[in-house]
Amino acid sequence: MIKKPTKISSLLFAMFLLIGFVFPVAGVVAATKVDINSASVTQLEAVTGIGQDTAQNIVDYKKEHGKFKSMQELEAVSGVGKVRLQALNDAFTVKSAKKVK
Questions:
Q1: Judging by beta carbons within 10 Å of its beta carbon (0-12, 13-18, 19+), is residue 4 exposed, middle or buried?
Q2: For 44-98, what is each residue's pLDDT tens digit?
């Protein structure tokens, strides 16, 4: 025997759907990645897991060594190790590096 939905269960279901549309599921990856070669300190800080010091270290590294050629090069930045680099792979990209011929 199938029970007829009650007003409360229908209301709860509608609220659940509404909340899902207003507050998308956490962990959904952003459609665009931050280009580490063109990002400012402020743009870098907006990425989860990057604080002010690490963002500044990334910008300082670019000034001293030039644009990043690959994501692996981020490991050379103070405050970014192998574990953090793996976590940042989904947030960053290296788009504006000059291609070596």
A1: exposed
A2: 998 888 899 999 999 999 999 999 999 899 999 998 888 888 888 888 888 865 5
CATH of domain 34-93: 1.10.150.280
Element (H, E) at 20: helix 7-22
Strand ranges in 1-101 using DSSP code E only, listed in sequence order? 34-35, 92-93
Cα angle 63-69-70, degrees, rounded to a multiple of 5 = 120
Residues 6 or more apart in contact with residue 4 via CB below 8 angstroms: none
**HSE of 7, CA atoms in CB hemisphere, 13 A:** 0
3-state DSSP call for residue 35?
strand
User: pLDDT per residue over 54-67, tens digit each?
Assistant: 999 999 999 999 99
